[in-house]
Amino acid sequence: MTVTDTIEAWRRFLSSPAAPKTALSALELDGYLTGIIVAPEPAPILPSAWIPGLWDGDEPIFDDLEQAQIALGAAIAHYNAIIAEIDRSLRRLEADRVSDYRPLFLTGDAKPSHNDVRSWVRGFSKAMALAPTAWTALAEDERTQPLIHPLVGFIETDDAEPFEMRDDADDLLDAAAALIPRTVTILRKITQMRQEEPPAQAPHRRTKIGRNDPCSCGSGKKYKHCCGRR
Questions:
Q1: 88 within 8 A of 184, measured Cβ to Cβ
Q2: Are the C-beta atoms of residues 127 and 34 closer than 8 Å to each other?
Q3: Which of 11, 50, 58, 71 could form a disulfide with 22 if both were Cys (CB 3.0 to 4.6 A apart)?
Q4: Percent of the chain having pLDDT more than 90?
Q5: Local structure of residue 52 (DSSP, 8 states)
Q6: What is the mean pLDDT of residues 132-138?
């Protein structure tokens, strides 16, 4: 199934009586699952961890198992479709230096509305909350900080204090939105590299042998009368 097919399936779920009011919108879902996929973790985030975030804690009320499978199937199918699309774009980026990945907020050739990008980033931010340590490390590393910058202007905060918008704020947001597709593709590469790394081995600790303990060489003698003799 294509990204278009899977997102339409999710929209049908949203229009059903089973969908809670807190269920992610189509744009939020696309951003949320993208954030799950590119989380810079050494192992993928499991569905058991991210599925509850689809409805933000307000459990849907399904009439039967089939209805539940349709809703979850739409989300998982969209997850897989996003992976396929990002990986296809990553291969092209590596081969041709062309970034052609298009998040859901991009439709046609027109500039995306800032509200659409903000909704998408809202979902992405929810995914970041599932791996806070990994994302914080990425944001604090000077080499990877630029990958976070395009998202920052669209992240909503709880700060109620009014602030003065810059005269060029719209232009800056347009530029940031244009960078997000390439950013997602590069984040996917970083994630793949981290998940391919062998797990770190615990340091080997030597056990101290007492002088009256049996010698480790297997002689049957006490250590002080064998290898421990000076």
A1: no
A2: yes
A3: 58
A4: 62
A5: G
A6: 95
Q: Are 89 and 99 in contact (CB under 8 A)?
A: yes
Q: What is the pLDDT of residues 147-161, one digit of tens each?
A: 999 999 898 876 545
Q: What is the pLDDT of residues 65-84, one digit of tens each?
A: 888 888 899 999 999 999 99
Q: Report yes or no: 131 and 170 within 8 Å, Cβ to Cβ.
A: no
Nearest CA among 57, 44, 85, 66 for reference residue 194? 44
25 close to 117: Cβ distance less than 8 angstroms: no
The whole-number pLDDT of residue 204 equals 47
Residue 223's nearest CA partner among 200, 207, 202 is 207
Give the integer Cα–Cα distance in Å for 130 and 173.
26
Which pTM was predicted? 0.82
Give every CB contact of residue 121 below 8 A, 6+ residues apart in sequence.
Answer: 31, 151, 154, 155
For residue 135, CA distances in Å to 150, 160, 174 come to: 14, 25, 24
Closest by Cα among 42, 38, 60 to 51? 60
Structure tokens at 183: 């950013």
Structure tokens at 134: 């990994």
- φ/ψ of residue 171, rounded to 5: -65, -40
For the beta carbon of residue 23, count every other beta carbon within 10 angstroms.
20
Q: Which residues pair with 214 in a beta bridge?
A: 222
Mark residue 97 as left, alpha or beta (left: phi above 0; alpha: psi -120 to 50; beta: remaining): left
